[in-house]
Amino acid sequence: MACIFPVCYFNSKFYFSETITHFPEVKDGECVFPFHYKNGTYYDCIKSKARHKWCSLNKTYEGYWKFCSAEDFASCVFPFWYRRLIYWECTDHGDAFGKKWCSLTKNFNKDRIWKYCE
């Protein structure tokens, strides 16, 4: 076994030490959002105890995962409700730095899940 924390290579497979138990059986599986992992619910790829962001291939993490590529990251949800308005595109409204952002759910007021737009 060869390891560069937290990823190990053994018997032609990669393993996350302490976090992920084995490489997904479906190499080209799709990320499932939101997914439940440990005590959290995640709407995008995460970097929990890993060098690179990853996602679960199941709604509730069952050991099947993959590293995220550009097309795996969560998409903006349009339209979304923020304060008293409905937005159909990214907005800078409410951002202290004037950067455009979007909600990852239909109701930002309730969920407060968001990301910066690219």
What does this structure look like?
By secondary structure, the protein is mainly beta. The protein has two domains: 50 residues, Seminal Fluid Protein  PDC-109 (Domain B), CATH 2.10.10.10; 37 residues, Fibronectin, type II, collagen-binding (Seminal Fluid Protein  PDC-109 (Domain B), Ribbon). Helix content is 3%, strand content 30%. It has one helix and eleven strands. A three-stranded antiparallel β-sheet has the order 1-2-3, with no helix packed on it. A two-stranded antiparallel ribbon has the order 4-5. Strand 4 and strand 5 form a beta hairpin. The longest helix has 4 residues. The termini are far apart. The N terminus is likely disordered.
Task: Encode the helix/strand succession as letters.
Answer: EEEEEEEEEEHE
Count every helix, treating DSSP H or I runs of 4 or more residues as helices: 1
Report how far apart the termini are.
39 Å
Helical content class: under 10%
Mean pLDDT: 82
Q: What gross morphology would you assign?
A: elongated
Determine the CATH superfamily of the largest domain: Fibronectin, type II, collagen-binding
Strand content: 25-35%
- What number of domains? 2
Strand order of the largest sheet: 1-2-3
Could you tell me the CATH topology label of the largest domain: Seminal Fluid Protein  PDC-109 (Domain B)
* Low-confidence parts: 1-10, 17-22
The biggest beta sheet, please?
Answer: 3 strands, antiparallel
CATH architecture title of the largest domain? Ribbon
Number of strands: 11
The radius of gyration is 17 Å
GO molecular function, one term: heparin binding
Domain Fibronectin type-II: 26-70, 71-118
Main location: secreted
Subcellular location: Secreted
